[in-house]
Write a structure and sequence with these properties.
By secondary structure, the chain is α/β, with parallel strands linked by helices. The protein has two domains: 4-93 and 279-299, 3-Layer(aba) Sandwich (Rossmann fold); 95-271, 3-Layer(aba) Sandwich (Rossmann fold), CATH 3.40.50. It has ten helices and twelve strands. The chain has helices at residues 16-21, 34-42, 77-83, 95-110, 113-121, 145-156, 184-190, 210-216, 232-240, 282-299; strands spanning 4-8, 26-29, 47-50, 64-67, 86-88, 137-141, 160-164, 178-179, 193-196, 220-223, 246-249, 269-271. Strands 8-7-6-9-10-11-12 form a seven-stranded parallel beta sheet, with helices on both faces. A five-stranded parallel beta sheet has the order 2-1-3-4-5, with helices on both faces. Strand 4, helix 3 (77-83) and strand 5 (86-88) form a beta-alpha-beta unit. It starts with a strand and ends in a 15-residue tail after the last helix.
Length: 314
């Protein structure tokens, strides 16, 4: 069997590169930067394992992109289809991990852990009374596997919940009140906490802007979806004006978040570096999908987590 040429992007989630390296029959290329990735692909590699995308990665011999993220907004789907490139994602791999992280951000905000950690850096001992989650009203926007994971956890903590889902009639999870996207304004006005657990919207459309933040009022915003979902200028303004009580963000409009952003210094903001889905368990779970799809690539069959030209998973 001819060895398959595979390029490993230099920035991958934990355990992914180790898993691929454990598979026999692959010729691996592990460039140190994006220019090296593009060069290796131009030299005939057929498979790219990546979390990110650049236009010059679309080389003539590329046949399969084994994506390490759930999002697809960075990929040129029409161009991939035209060239016959299969794109697969890591959808579902990190759902439980991200749900835990989202819950941790929510707790950090309501219990004022971010403020306490800042006090630690100054050896400043001060009691900061936090809020109890029990009885709070939580709006979960996006009820895929991540949002559902948050909902299951929140049930045990005694939160009142409303979910937002594109097609509420298709929902089969644990929530009893699920509404369509058009209900977002009224749900923001009802909620104490709004949690975003959905992918980017077409064209990078903003979901939470000035109007939604005003309706949320003295509440908290948590975003483990995509940074493009939130109007960051409106978020900063809501925080600086004292209307919003805090924000927990694993994602931002520009990543890495520029050092000049006011979000870094705001004591009511808890930030993580788009790592909600990273854990030692990621590599083996992703590897199960990769191994299946590698067999399909070589011998034929049904792909797992393949993306159609319209963005739907097949």
């Amino acid at each position: 069997m001819t060895e398959l040429s595979v390029v490993l992007h230099h920035k991958l989630p934990p355990g992914v590169a180790d898993f691929v390296r454990s598979i026999p029959g692959l010729t691996l290329h592990a460039p140190a930067d994006d220019e090296g990735v593009a060069s290796a692909l131009r030299q005939g590699a057929e498979v790219l394992v990546t979390y990110t995308w650049r236009p010059d990665f679309l080389a003539p011999d590329l046949k399969w992109i084994a994506g390490c993220g759930a999002g697809i907004e960075q990929y040129p789907l029409a161009s991939l289809q035209a060239q016959g490139v299969t794109l697969t994602t890591a959808a579902g791999v990190h759902a439980e991990c991200v749900a835990e992280h989202a819950f941790a951000l929510m707790l950090a905000l309501t219990r004022r852990i971010g403020e306490s950690v800042r006090n630690m850096s100054r050896a400043h001992w001060v009691a900061l009374p936090g809020e109890e989650l029990g009885g709070k009203k939580l709006a979960i926007v996006g009820l895929g596997s991540i949002g559902e994971g948050v909902a299951r956890r929140a049930q045990a903590w005694g939160l009142d919940m409303v979910g937002i889902k594109r097609n509420p009639a298709n929902y089969t999870g644990c929530l009893t009140d699920v509404r369509p996207p058009e209900a977002l304004p009224e749900v923001c006005a009802w909620a104490d906490i709004v949690m975003l657990c959905l992918p980017a919207l077409p064209g990078g459309r903003v979901l939470i802007g000035k109007a939604e933040l005003e309706r949320l009022g003295a509440g908290w915003l948590v975003n483990v979806g995509r940074g493009s979902l939130v109007d960051e200028a409106a978020l900063v303004d809501a925080l600086q004006q004292g209307r919003l009580r805090g924000a927990g963000l694993d994602v931002t409009q520009v990543e890495p978040l520029p050092a000049s952003s006011p979000l870094w210094a705001d004591p009511r903001v808890v930030l993580s570096a788009h790592n909600a889905g990273d854990s030692p368990g990621f590599g083996p779970r992703w590897g199960t999908i990769f191994a299946h799809n590698l067999d399909v690539f070589r011998h034929g069959g049904v792909w797992r987590n393949a993306v159609a030209a319209n963005g739907a998973l097949t």
